[in-house]
Amino acid sequence: MVTEKITSLVLRYPKLIIIATIGITILLSFFVSKLEVNPDVFSNLPEDDKTAQLFNKIGEEYGGNYLCLIGLKAEDVFTTQVLSSIKQITDSARTIAGVGAVNSLTNILDIQGDEWGIVIGQLVDPYNLPHRTSQLDSLKTYVLNKALYKGGLVSPDAKMTVVLVRLEEDIDKTEVASKLKEKITAIGIPEKLFFGGQPFVMMEFGHVILRDITFIGPVTLLFILLVLYFGLRSLRAVLFPVLTVVISCIWTFGLMGLLGVKISIITSVIPILLVAIGSAYTLHMMNRIYETKAKKGENTLKKAISFIIVPIFFTAITTLFGFMSFVFGSYLDMISKFGIFTSVGIAVALLLSITFVPALMSFSRNNTRNTTKTSEADSQLLTRFLKAITRTVFNHPERIVWIWIFLILIFILGIFRLERSVNITDYFKKDNPIRITENILQEKLGGTSPVYISIKGDLLQPEVLKMIRKTEDYLTSFPEVVHAQSIADLIEEMHFVMGEGRTIPDDKEKISNLWFLLEGQDVLQRLVNYEKNEAIIHATFGSDEMDKMRDFVSKMNAFFIANETENISFELSGMPSLLLCFDESILRSQLQSLALAIILVLLAVSLLGRSFKMGFFAITPILSTLCILYGFMGIVSIPLDLATVLVGSISIGIGIDYSIHIMNQVNADRKQGRSLQTAISHAIQISGKSIIINVFSVSAGFLVLILSSLVPLQRFGILVAVTMLGSGFGSVTLLPSILLIHEKLINKHHHA
Amino acid sequence: MHERIKYLLLLSSICIFPTIACLAQSAQEILMKYDKVVFAPLDQYAEITIQITDKKGNSSIRKASMLQKGKHKRITRFTSPASQAGIGFLSLPNELMYIYLPAFGKERRIASHIKNQTFAGTDFTYEDMEALAYSDKYNPKLIRTTESSYILELIPKNPRNSEYSKLIITIDKKEFYGTNTIYYNKSGQKCKKLVTKMEKRGIYWIALSAEMTDLIKNHKTKMTITKITHDQKLSDEEFTIRKLVQ
Predict the structure, then answer these.
(1) What residues make up the domain containing B167?
(2) Which among B12, B19, B15, B30 has a CA at the least distance from the CA of B176?
(3) How far is A196 from chain B (nearest CA, A)?
(4) pLDDT digit string (tens) for A675-727?
(5) Are the beta carbons of A465 and A459 closer than 8 angstroms?
(6) Most buried by CB count within 10 Å: which residue of A10, A200, A280, A611?
(7) What ipTM does this complex have?
(8) Residue contact A118–B118, C-beta within 8 A
(9) CATH number belonging to domain A1-33+238-372
(10) Minimal Cα–Cα distance from B172 to chain A, Å?
(11) Total structural domains within chain B
(12) Which H/E stretch holds residue A232?
């Protein structure tokens, strides 16, 4: 048999295996140091998605996707002191490499006109800031009465203003944002500053990811170490799983470093997953070796390993299937990468458990000591608990099944209340400065989520500019939309200062003349392309509510269909469109990955038990737990988000392991001619112990994620712990009960 | 257009006092001589081609004619492309500036406090174009002398009136024209570079081409003189609003 061949090889060349493992680990640890963090969620958008393509195109050609907002809060923005601070920030920001356009009250383009003449210049003269009260009052009145500035550059109560800093493409945005924040803070201006916008959000994500990996990873390891120690009371039983997990992490991250794959908000959870999952394989391997030796003495290492390789292999394969289900059909690239590299990590943990660990154990002189110690000290409580479970299962199998059905029915109601959350800012805790800043900016200045409309047509033609006007008017009719700006605004303003009304001229020549006056203004690069056949309407969307976004996107698309002509075409992009795609993809990939995981796992366990019916029985605990999980999420208002969307498939992959161990033990006993009752009792007593210890160690590991600064990761930790508890207890209660009832029914049938 | 880049100069001082150029001179003297060369012609008529190139390499060409008298009177009229033909600018003493848009048949005065705005989409700002003598506007310091040039550092006398913190200008030792100017912004960062190509036409040194590069935006403007005449004794009547709207 293959398992025996593997075992023989491992026991024949233990030194070679140990040396090779250490060698590869040293080699790959070099690449771990080369790992980089990519906190930009939006760099993961799929390349073939139309909305994402337009979003990226507008970002590249017109700027704006990476907009930093530096907010200044004061009693009154319109004082010489505050204006001077704004000017200092503006001048300072402009000198940083990687910063594109900077716009603020002290350098914004302003078009004014009267009988005296026209001013196509700046709102204030930066070299001669207004200082008299009358000048400042008049500036305040002018700004607060101009739609272009009010609520955009200055809050309506004049207590907050913002400096808009656009970053260039093809640069390290977080690095530039970091320099920007450092430089602006160093000026030491007296007003309170807020740093908001996507680059600062990304920067914070970067810090949090690094913090999570360097702090939460080791803490998880420590937690699992403690739980294992208290469960097994053996230092070696703790050290071996920890060693396996650390090596698996080094191999996985080393491979990522070697292949140039960056760490994302999601892949940052890999060490925690590997710590929680990978330790189980070693634990089962060691437990089996101890159990076998305790009963049959020495020289049974080979037998023990041969026996346990199959279930460990299948538990790993099913867990792999859970993660591999993310590789296909995920909207975000980072979720696919997460699937791939966690699978790699699990494969490594599996490999080490069946090679490196037995190789190490073959050198230990007195293995039974630990086991004896374990069986004595260990867990009298656990043993008593498992005996109680065995009794209950034997006495009331139907009642157990009914309790589970009752639980499922209650929680199913919660599933209908399940929500989805795609707002990236909500991913930070409520007291996180970046979330506070984003909320303030949203409240005072209408938010930082960009909306773009691309309009294609000859921009020198009056009808095209009039259509831009019409579209912008329709856009701003949505109460959530603020700060709309387009080339039509500027042409109308110029037309006005030429004394002919705030309208689009009917004459193409006039449009050309007005256009000439705007040439060279930085703002034009954001609004039109070089060939003058595409214009972008920029705006911001000030709501996180998905229903409002859905309504907005569908109404805008209907408007486009109604107004499209041979010469004019429209496209909508920006955060609401992207978040909608994202939202739909979360639901789609949730269903896809769940279905895929269930099918693959069902096939795997059916193959293991050589019976489809047995496979179905085996997945019943985890399926039941999933119902409880999603119901629980609905009831306690935990939404499906970037991280919690992963829980279902991961839980299937991990949770099925418990059933596999129970089924494997039952099958082995049945093969030896034992009765089902004996086999089940045996399974609960032997495998149940590993399962319960594993449930607590894995749950403890995942619960450490509560310490994360990112809300989705906190929720992820709690939910995985919940499903581990559910599927663990399901495998020692529900599964044996089903098997017993099944046999009863068969017997009844035979008697009949 | 800009006096420094444009056109011609009279090297009378050097002709009269040929030995002076060879002697060690103070920075102020060098700059005054430079100003004298720049503002030498009494008046001039030039036809110019303006090539604007953006950071993506997109390039557009405009053509214009320009009349100038003394330091403070100038009228520029665009002749090409057709959509911009006829658009005119009139600059008069005391920072008076007017624009004429033919499609509207109207002129409008343009405010004077827009020095750091670009002129008609080029990389020259109104400050770059203003007709102030450098020796009046800047405090010079001679920082280096090479075999052929003086390198001067110019610091604005009134920093509030300039968007630059300093200029580094290279002045030809023999003829006192500028060949190269580096502009530094208020943060001390190199922001623009002007390179001129000089040629002697008659008694004046002319900047046949002047290329201004915005080092931050990676955007450049090259002005090339295709035709030039001097000292036509242009009348003040040529520099009126009536002439602008004609």
Answers:
(1) 3-244
(2) B30
(3) 24
(4) 888 899 988 988 888 788 888 878 888 888 888 888 888 898 899 898 889 98
(5) yes
(6) A280
(7) 0.80
(8) no
(9) 1.20.1640.10
(10) 31
(11) 1
(12) helix A217-232
